[in-house]
Amino acid sequence: QVQLVESGGGAVQPGGSLRLSCVASGLSFGTYAMGWFRQGPEKEREFVAVISERGLITYFADSVKGRSTISRDNNKNTVNLQMNNLDAEDTATYYCAAGKYRGGSQWYRKLTTYDYWGQGTQVTVSS
Questions:
Q1: Fewer beta carbons within 10 angstroms: which end of the chain, N or C?
Q2: Under a CB-based contact definition with an 8 Å cutoff, are residues 64 and 83 in contact?
Q3: What is the sign, positive or negative, of the torsion defined by CA atoms of 76, 79, 82, 86?
Q4: How far apart, in whole angstroms, are the C-alpha atoms of residue 54 and residue 87?
Q5: Are the beta carbons of 81 and 17 closer than 8 angstroms?
Q6: How do residues 31-62 score in pLDDT, each as one tens digit?
Q7: Rounded CA gap, 60 and 67, in Å?
Q8: What is the pLDDT of residues 56-96, one digit of tens each?
Q9: What is the pLDDT, as a whole number, of residue 20?
Q10: Which of 60, 39, 40 is nearest to 50 (CA)?
Q11: Which of 108, 98, 95 is nearest to 45 (CA)?
């Protein structure tokens, strides 16, 4: 049984930082691209970042580019998302997901690329 378990969410003030982690089990972790998505109140789930199977390639949404990093440790089946300079627009439930390249432009942005999803961790940015 595949499980993805996120952690690291919480309440943070504007301008603050958070490091989200996702631990995977039950899958061959190093053969999956790992993505982070988020879903804010009354919003659709949206792409945040992705890292390739060996960690050599990363992509970010424009909204977080330049203030976020994504990393993975294939020995620990873990993927991390570091987000800095947070603001209210970052308030959302953050999900990690495991998927494989299926072709097409910007395949990593598509929800259907990902086979497995975590339950999410809540991030609230508020003063």
A1: N
A2: yes
A3: negative
A4: 31
A5: no
A6: 999 999 999 999 999 999 999 999 999 999 99
A7: 10
A8: 999 999 999 999 999 999 999 999 999 999 999 999 999 99
A9: 98
A10: 60
A11: 95
Which three-class secondary structure string do you get for the chain?
Answer: CCEEEEECCEEECCCCCEEEEEEEECCCHHHCEEEEEEECCCCCCEEEEEECCCCCCEEECCCCCCCEEEEEECCCCEEEEEECCCCHHHCEEEEEEEECCCCCCCHHHCHHHEEEECCCEEEEECC
Q: Which two tokens stand for residue 28?
A: 């061959």
Type of residue numbered 34: M
d(CA 25, CA 109): 23
